[in-house]
Structure formats: structure tokens, C-alpha cells
Amino acid sequence: MQSPLELPLKGSDGAALLQPTPFIESAAPEVVRFARETVSDATDDVERGVMLYHAVRDEIRYDPYRITLSEDCFRATTVLRERAAFCIPKAILLAAAARAVGIPSALGFADVKNHLTTRKLREAMGSDVFVYHGYTVLKLGGKWVKATPAFNLSLCQRFGVRPLEFDGKSDALLHPYDAQNRKHMEYLNERGLFADFPFQEIVTTFRSYYAGYFDRNLESGDKFEDETPVNC
Q1: Structural domain 15-215, CATH architecture
Q2: 230 in helix, strand or coil?
């Protein structure tokens, strides 16, 4: 099991958090191209971080039906190729794109209760608790800030959820309430920060928590964004 980084990341020069890994593929040509094109007009790292956040949030569609237990599912290059992923691979892509342009990054995980879901997703998962919900931690302007690029703008508009904005200076975690002031996301338990994706740890936990999910038989072409949200 990979050890989590200390919280907060004080005293770190970020050198170890600039390196490519098998999952955070910051040296892959397609990741480098995506990152550099996204931040081409930026003037500092804060602006670069914000631009990368919005690109990953909105250009990669959130899709919880893309969860598999294969290593390839969690690689930054896979996310770029498929243009759809759930929270963890999207956080991995943001971490990789940040490192590609010289911004130190890490991955953060927490267990959350999702009060706003769909009947099909709840039935498939057997729960409204998402263990190891993923987000990214970026070193911008000399300090570490958390950013959650999970829910794309069109999904937020469809589900009546305020899009999560990020200014590069303050943490951007998911809202506790939606646009109608209904409960949305509730953080239950922090899992820590990691320099690379702890694949085996998370896959083992997913197998334990969501055994039925991986035996499901969803129809080909299921699209989460087209479903009707329900409040639990």
C-alpha cells in the first residue's frame, strides 16, 4: 500500500510531485500537447492551474458507468482518448496536465455521500456513498489548493447543480447543496493525499464495497447525463 503524503504539504519543494508515473503520465506526448495548448495564453501558474481545471472539468464528460478495475481505466492518456471518465481518472488527468507544465500536483481521496444521484446509478452501486472520491491537489502561488474537476458544466446544468468554480487560490470541493438548496455532497472521511494513484488499494476497496456494480449488465450506450436525478 502506498503511503499518503503528509497533510498539509508544508515544506515541500514539489520536486517529487513533478515526475511522470504509470498513471500520472505527464510526459506522454498527448498529455503534454493538451496541457500546453490549454495554457498557451496564461501568464502565471495560478492562471495555468485554473485553465487546466476548466479544460478537464468541461472537456471530459463525467460518466460513473466508465468505472472498471483495469489499470488502463486510470491512465491520463486513456481519459484524453475517451473524453469521458469518473472522478478519479479526471483528477489523474488534471494532475498529469499540471505536471506537464511545471506545476507540482498530487491526488486526494475522500469518502462522500452523494445525496443527488439517479435511480440506475444507486441500484448499480448499491449505495449513495462514494468511497475514494478523487480530487487533485495543485501547488499554485506557493501554496497547495484542492480542485475537483469531476462534474462537467453541461451535467451540472442538466442536474440543477451549481458548477464548481476554481480560482487557483482557494480549495474547490463539491458543494454541500445544489441550486435548489437540496443536499448534494457530504464529506464523510478523508483518505489522504498521494504522489501517484494507489491502484491496488482502491481496486481492493471497490471490489469490497461495490461487488454488484461490476456484475451489472448496463445497456450499451448508457449515458449518465441523460438520466433523471433523484434526491436521497
Answers
A1: Roll (3.10)
A2: strand
